Amino acid sequence: MRASAPHALVNTLRGVLAERYGALSVELLLADHGATALTPFGAAGASAAPVPVVNSAEGRAFGSRQPHQETRHGDLVEHHFPVAVRGERTGILTVWLPAERSVPDTVRDLVHTAGLLGHELLVAERDTDVYRRARRLSRLTLAAEMQWQLLPARSCSAEEYAIGAQLEPAHDTNGDNYDWASDADELTLAVTDGMGTGVNASMLTHLAVSALRNARRAGISVEDQAALADQALYAQYRGAAHVSTLLLRFDFATGRVQAVDAGSPQLWRMRGRAIERIALDPQMPLGMFEETHYKAQEFGVRPGDRLLIVSDGVYAVRSPQGEAYAERALARALHATGLLPAAAVPRAVLRDLADFRAAESADDALVLCVDWFGKPGHRPPGPAGSGRGSR
């Protein structure tokens, strides 16, 4: 695969698996932007009919991140292997094997192969559009194209944490965005919501996220990250446009979290069966006023905690009876998704939101889930780090 042309990874792999394992068919299915379907990637790069993630064998392998197999015609076995990179689920590798070749050693090799394919796809997408094109169930708007290019991934996992995130509508998103980065000692998260719609909102958010990344990569505090991004936005828009932002920095050793709440995203925590909103003191959105000073607050997380960050396009949505989603439905959704991995939670919450709301929303909806595992043997923060909760 490393010697293959970027657009020809599947063809190259198909030949290798046929020669080595007697594979009769090899197919790559790529997850669409909404993570609702898996689109087959053909030999020439053309996509066929998508396979739904819900109620399909391929979808079960994708959701569980575990291999799944089906026996057909008695002498053939169809295997589905998750294709992922550091927790980011890219799609499914489907391989048909003769029954006599479908043995544990072969399955183990193919699991490893699917992992290698995930890494090679990540590199190949720098040089070709064929895989990005195959993922699209419909054409992205220009604003959505800008937003998806800005995102780090839809999920990520490490020893200390697992993250899952999703934006809707996937093909027409505007100003909502998220970003993350980690090193040996800490994880930094940013959830942003640029005001307005369309390309203007995407350009505003692009400037905000780039400014936050520039400040973060300078190794400064979350307070100063917010301040520098605020200055960059004000210099460009002079207060006429602003970006609501939630910044979080997790310390791996202690479970302490520094937070700057500069706008509308809300933060919820599930600890055991208890759910509470972490009610931080609100500060000015980025870019609203010149030289705003930001102050970080602290709360604590413990191994087993689940955090959910939602934009106003989620918590403020109302039912036909006029009830806001955050009043009771959000807590119910958190309980209902308690056994799902972090990567699957945002999609499940957004499905629940679609059933809840009175009508289609014109606003973006963003859900980001963090499962906290912490460093093995670290000391959890005491009561002082529990945060202020409204539920």
From TrEMBL:
Q: Which Pfam families match?
A: SpoIIE
User: What are the UniProt keywords, alphabetically?
Assistant: Hydrolase
Does this entry carry the keyword Hydrolase?
A: yes
Q: Which residues form the PPM-type phosphatase domain?
A: 158-372
Q: Which domain of life is it from?
A: Bacteria
Q: Does the keyword Coiled coil apply?
A: no
Give the PANTHER family listed for this entry.
STAGE II SPORULATION PROTEIN E, STAGE II SPORULATION PROTEIN E-RELATED
Q: Know the name of this protein? A: Phosphatase
Please tell me the species this chain comes from.
Answer: Streptomyces kronopolitis
Q: What is the lineage of its organism?
A: Bacteria, Bacillati, Actinomycetota, Actinomycetes, Kitasatosporales
